[in-house]
Specification:
- This protein is of the alpha/beta class.
- It folds into 2 domains: 146 residues, TPP-binding domain (Rossmann fold, 3-Layer(aba) Sandwich); 68 residues, SIR2/SIRT2 'Small Domain' (2-Layer Sandwich).
- 32% of the residues lie in helices and 20% in strands.
- A 6-stranded parallel β-sheet has the order 5-4-1-9-10-11, with helices on both faces. Strands 7-6-8 form a 3-stranded antiparallel β-sheet, with helices on one face.
- Strand 6 and strand 7 form a beta hairpin.
- The structure holds zinc ion.
- Zinc ion binds next to loops.
């Protein structure tokens, strides 16, 4: 019997599952982020395209960058993968209460059919108005002349992305979920970005803590079990424990 058997098969009391997803799960769908290439995202540094200061200094460059990312996301090259799909299957089983807290700004969890998703770092397919503060869906390019459909102001729209130095979304709600978690699953996340890296330590002591990541992380020792596999392989392993075998 492996540790995973011991943790999951003998625990029939799992009801609330909190899944934290990160760059690794999107990488398998061909979406790259800063983490995959030493702090560069498609040849741009964090300082160039992912801070409020960068946007203030060069809004055109920042808009172009996110326009490209949005185009890529909406292109036929990108689709959800096996890992997203298994998460959806687990949610659809109705055996558990599932919430997915994602650090990813793509919509691949939703595309695979997962319903309860929190985008703590914002969404590529949304824009936020800096004047009226309203966030709205977007699937086309933004520029410095774009007009807000809510307040009609011109040039006030920005990508609805939580940039470095900004406060992640829905932290109170996230904390409530973490506090009542029976199983915490961290998938494809390097454990280097705060506050997400602290979530595992926010769960109750009796909560089962599992990590799926292609390699060991800085916080692997805070988990009961660490599966060093790709997101898809790791979820296929876990699926056998969480869903009844057909
Ligand atoms: Zn507005």
């Amino acid at each position: 019997m492996t540790i995973l058997d011991d943790l999951l098969q003998n625990n029939k009391s799992i009801k609330n599952i909190v899944i934290l997803s990160g760059a690794g799960i999107s990488a398998e769908s061909g979406i790259r982020t800063f983490r995959d290439s030493n702090g560069l995202w498609e040849d741009h540094s964090i300082e160039e395209v992912a801070t409020p200061e960068a946007f203030q200094k060069n809004p055109k460059l920042v808009h172009n960058f996110y326009n490209q990312r949005r185009k890529q996301l909406l292109s036929s090259e990108v689709d959800f993968n096996k890992a997203h799909q298994i998460i959806t299957e687990i949610e659809d089983s109705n055996l558990y209460n599932i919430v997915v807290i994602t650090q990813n700004v793509d919509d691949l969890h939703e595309r695979s059919g997962t319903k309860n998703v929190i985008h703590m770092h914002g969404e590529l397919l949304k824009t936020k108005c800096t004047s009226c503060n309203i966030s709205s869906p977007i699937d086309s390019d933004l520029d410095t002349q774009s007009i807000c459909s809510h307040c009609d102001e011109k040039g006030t729209l920005r990508p609805d992305i939580v940039w470095f130095g900004e406060m992640p979304y829905q932290l109170n709600e996230i904390e409530t979920y973490l506090n009542s978690a029976d199983l915490f699953l961290s998938i494809g996340t390097s454990g280097q970005v705060y506050p997400a890296a602290m979530f595992v330590s926010t769960t109750p002591s009796e909560c089962i803590k599992l990590e799926i990541n292609i390699e060991k992380t800085n916080i692997s020792n805070q988990f009961d079990y660490s599966i060093q596999e790709s997101s898809s392989k790791g979820m296929e392993i876990l699926k056998n424990y969480l869903l009844p075998q057909k």
